[in-house]
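Regression test case RT-17, inverse folding.

Input:
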């Protein structure tokens, strides 16, 4: 298999037959009335929205990422404060500096939402639309509100298709979903044959050393697909709310002693390097502690849009002998070219793959307990 064998699929996306399947799971009625569609959002709610709105109100950083991917960034009039911390994203789309910041610190500024230009649809995460007080305020605005999130790869494909339907960019949605599926198929084909007792054990640190994946999330799906066993998710799991966080005890981490530690947040790596008690970890001793790449989004994070790249990177990092033909640099360049219409410079590419410098995160790194 030649290098870059995966990314060629995205280049020919206009010929894709995936489009029908992409839309089929999302649209309840494509013509409820001219110019509108009815879609089923993440919470299972059917919402009638104007197709290809003139203005979008993003209340969720990921929604802004998707809208930008579909070429709608100039129509985004509101966004979450989290987007201002996405350094590369703001470099690629400086026009977003003109968008109104309406959400930050778990609060929503309704007054900013309704200013002109007024959005014709609001796109939010469950944190917003599961809060009764906020929902009451949003309902009074009379603006259709769509909830997006995804707890696994299949749900991500459905949500990406739904967003393509709303924005009138079904072909772009189909291209992304086909590329993601091609990565899933390739990686699964190579990792499915690994015996359970030979799968590499990993631990994923999310911003803080002891904060890790929540069961039933995209992150869990990504690392499972890559043929690894996530030690923090072994055995019975507590019931964690959709908007909650999952922490483990330091003793539990030491006991599991994973072969690989994958980190979102460079200050976590610094914390480990400066903590002698953690140097007994097998991953540290064997040099298998890695920062996950960081681009427009944090690879391996729930709701990241760079899921295909996270899968490939994880699989190649943990099983280099199985993925020696996969060129992560080329895949990353092609991903940005095909889906963001952006040519990464050599320095930008190196920075993404280093996992450093492209996210403003409040320093923490420590145990997180």
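Golden output:
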């Amino acid at each position: 298999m030649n290098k870059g064998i995966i990314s060629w699929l995205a280049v020919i996306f206009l010929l894709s037959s995936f489009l029908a399947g992409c839309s089929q799971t999302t649209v309840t009625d494509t013509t409820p009335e001219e110019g509108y569609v009815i879609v089923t959002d993440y919470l299972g709610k059917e919402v009638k929205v104007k197709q290809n709105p003139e203005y979008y109100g993003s209340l969720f950083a990921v929604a802004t990422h998707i809208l930008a991917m579909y070429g709608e960034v100039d129509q985004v009039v509101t966004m979450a404060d989290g987007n201002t911390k996405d350094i590369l994203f703001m470099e690629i789309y400086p026009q977003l500096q003109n968008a109104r910041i309406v959400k930050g610190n778990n609060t929503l500024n309704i007054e900013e939402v309704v200013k002109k230009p007024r959005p014709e649809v609001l796109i939010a995460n469950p944190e917003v639309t599961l809060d009764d007080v906020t929902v009451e305020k949003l309902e009074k605005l009379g603006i259709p509100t769509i909830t997006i999130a995804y707890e696994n790869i299949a749900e991500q494909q459905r949500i990406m298709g739904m967003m393509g339907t709303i924005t009138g960019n079904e072909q772009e949605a189909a291209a992304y979903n086909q590329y993601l599926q091609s990565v899933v198929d390739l990686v699964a084909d190579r990792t499915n044959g690994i015996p359970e007792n030979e799968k590499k054990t990993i631990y994923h640190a999310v911003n803080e050393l002891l904060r890790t994946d929540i069961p039933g999330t995209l992150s869990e799906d990504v690392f499972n697909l890559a043929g690894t066993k996530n030690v923090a998710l072994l055995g019975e799991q507590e019931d964690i709310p959709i908007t909650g966080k999952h922490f483990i005890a330091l003793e539990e981490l030491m006991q599991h002693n994973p072969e690989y530690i994958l980190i979102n947040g460079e200050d976590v790596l610094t914390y480990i390097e400066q903590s002698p008690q953690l140097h007994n970890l097998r991953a540290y001793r064997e040099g298998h502690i890695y920062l996950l790449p960081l681009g427009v989004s944090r690879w391996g994070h729930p709701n990241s849009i760079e899921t295909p790249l996270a899968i490939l990177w994880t699989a190649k990092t943990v099983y280099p002998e199985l993925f020696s033909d996969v060129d992560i640099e080329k895949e990353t360049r092609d991903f940005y070219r095909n889906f963001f219409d952006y040519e990464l410079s050599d320095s930008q590419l190196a920075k993404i793959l280093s996992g450093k410098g492209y996210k403003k995160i409040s320093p923490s790194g420590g145990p997180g307990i």
